[in-house]
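ARCHIVE CARD
Drawer: 12
Card no.: 0347
Subject: one protein chain, sequence and derived structure
Cross-reference: see card 0346
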Amino acid sequence: MCNVEETGYPKEIFSSVDRLIFFCGLATLSKDVHWVLRAVYSIYNYTLIANCMIFIIFELIAFRRALEDVPTFLSQIAMMFTHVICMVKLWMLIYRKEQVAKIKAKLQNKHFEYVSIDDFQPGKKMHKETLFIKFVSMFIFAVYVIVGILGHFTAAIMVNKNSSSGTFSGNVSCQSFIPYNFYYPFNTSTPRKCHYALIYMDINLDICAFYIALLDMIFVLFLHVLAIQLNILSKAFITIRKRCLRKMKMDLNIRLFRDADHKEFEQEMYSELVHCTKHLCLLIGVRQDIESLFSFITLFQVTASLLISASCLFAAATVPVSSPNFFSQLQYFSAILSQIFIYCWFGNKITHASSELPTAIYKSDWLGCSRRFKQAMLMSMKRMERPLYVSIGKFTPLSLSTLLAVLRGSFSYFTLFQRAGQI
């Protein structure tokens, strides 16, 4: 194992994740932190969770009322499933902290860091990916928050446009402009109170969005870092001879006909191959950990996305184009597609990165290697004939083809909803 100074790896890859976990109130503060600060943070945490749960109860009340009208019921499916997903993901964030921490530790294992040689610069690559991770983290949060903010501003503009002297103009009410139908625990008969309702809606929707975005972010970043580690391991296999020559302080351009004639070098080559193989086993184990932790939540997410997307399209098709509800539904539909696209894109990266490993092992300049080196090399190549992937509920791999299936399914359900709404 090489130390951090030699490898140039960043000390912490998931620092942005830790900060966002703290922001969402789900961090575990050290006992070294003053008890007053820990108490304040606990109040902050429970306040967020309580607001989220109260809002979902109000949503259930509105959903129950919507059962009396088929079109309203179909348009309410999107928000209902979203809040159910929110509760499931919040449960995972609270009760699966240890599993998440273990995966983070494995992906940052200092024992499997490689020194740079020629164009193989794993430390620099990880530094770049750390910046990318920060960008992805903020992007996922921004997508969810912007959807709510745009819905608020659109509705607020329409409220101001259709009101004068503190009252609504014509035969309209606050419900005519609220982008999402849910139960309000207070009066909304005036434009001013309607603005309060919009603010109340935004705050609670954003809290739910934070929890959903946080788990999504953890999931896709685990997939991304795993894919990057697989890419680094591929280059490590390819450069194994050069790295061993440099470690042994030998000429990098030397050509050895038989490594077995140089016992120390042959031992170093074999030890480095074993080291890379252990790294491969670790990454395969990480893939299994991610699978066991997120497999069924991805199944639930993908299945719900079919209904949510269809519901958004149906709701947008039943209101005027100038309605704030029309824009909010299209924004929501775009957010759901972005979410599934991110899932599928990073899931596909794992499969692609792992499929390159057999070729990388073959390029490891093995002609002069010992018999045991070649045997170990063949076993690793044989194992990686089956590329790695994360499945959706143990049924199908999470890949870009899944995105196409979701799109086809969404439009099929949309057609079904239209027929049901006409009955």
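Annotation on reverse: Residues 62 and 406 are 27 Å apart (CA to CA). Strands lie at 163-164, 167-168, 391-392, 396-397.
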